[in-house]
Amino acid sequence: MGARSRATCAVATAALLAVAACGDEDFENSPRPPVPVGLSGVIQEDKVTVSPAKVGAGQVTITISNQTDAPKSITLEGGGTTETVGPVGPLDTAEITRTLEPGSYEVRAGSEKAVPREIAPAKLAIGKERKSSSGDLLLP
After folding, report:
1. What is the per-residue pLDDT for 34?
2. pLDDT at res. 44
3. What pLDDT is attached to residue 33?
4. Along the chain (140 residues), what's the average pLDDT of each consecutive run of 10 residues?
5. What are the sequence ranges of the domains in the chain?
6. Most buried residue among 9, 60, 101, 133 by CB atoms closer than 10 A?
7. Measured between alpha carbons, how far is residue 52 from residues 10, 78, 105, 124 in Å?
8. Measured over all CA atoms, what is the biggest interatomic distance in the chain, rounded to whole angstroms?
9. What pLDDT does residue 137 have?
10. In 3D, which of 67, 34, 31, 33 has the Cα closest to residue 49?
């Protein structure tokens, strides 16, 4: 191999090493968050239900249908979190999306007018964090 070939080979090797080192300091290979979970809820005249009532910690989207004759506001409360949406009209739906930490939560329905009896809230039990979604394909 001639001097020119060795020089070309050395330059090519140096360029490959430089490209391979790019970004090493800036890229942190952190695990992806858990796959978001969808929960379904229903507001009835006497109670609110949410299913499933037990999930692991992470992002949760609760879709709630108001099956009563009056508009209702919906409140998710617990673990230092309070989020209210609404009022949600009769036979309409609303969504609450939050990242929930382990703990106990309530989903309540209320109205602007006084009612003869309070609607019983749904209880949510949020357990330890769900596994990473790093190995799952076709996620957004």
Report:
1. 76
2. 93
3. 74
4. 67 67 60 83 93 91 93 91 90 92 92 70 88 62
5. 37-129
6. 60
7. 62, 17, 13, 8
8. 97
9. 58
10. 67
C-alpha distances out from residue 69 to 42, 53, 65, Å: 13, 25, 12
Task: Give the 3-state secondary structure of residue 12.
Answer: helix
pLDDT at 41: 94
CATH 3.30.1490.20 fits 37-129, yes or no: no
Give yes or no for a contact between 126 and 79, defined as CB atoms under 8 angstroms apart.
Answer: yes
Structure token digits, residue 84: 């209210």
| Two tokens, residue 76 | 């998710």
| pTM to 2 decimal places | 0.69
The rounded distance, in Å, linking the Cα atoms of 122 and 114 is: 20
- Those residues whose C-beta lies under 8 Å from the C-beta of residue 31, and which sit 6 or more positions away, are 132, 134
What pLDDT is recorded for position 13?
74
- Contact yes or no for 110/72 (Cβ under 8 A): yes
Which residues, 6 or more positions from 38, have their beta carbon under 8 angstroms from its beta carbon? 60, 61, 62, 63
Beta pairing class for 37-43 and 48-51: antiparallel
Q: Which residue has the tokens 């490959």?
A: 16
C-alpha 92/C-alpha 70 separation (Å) is 10
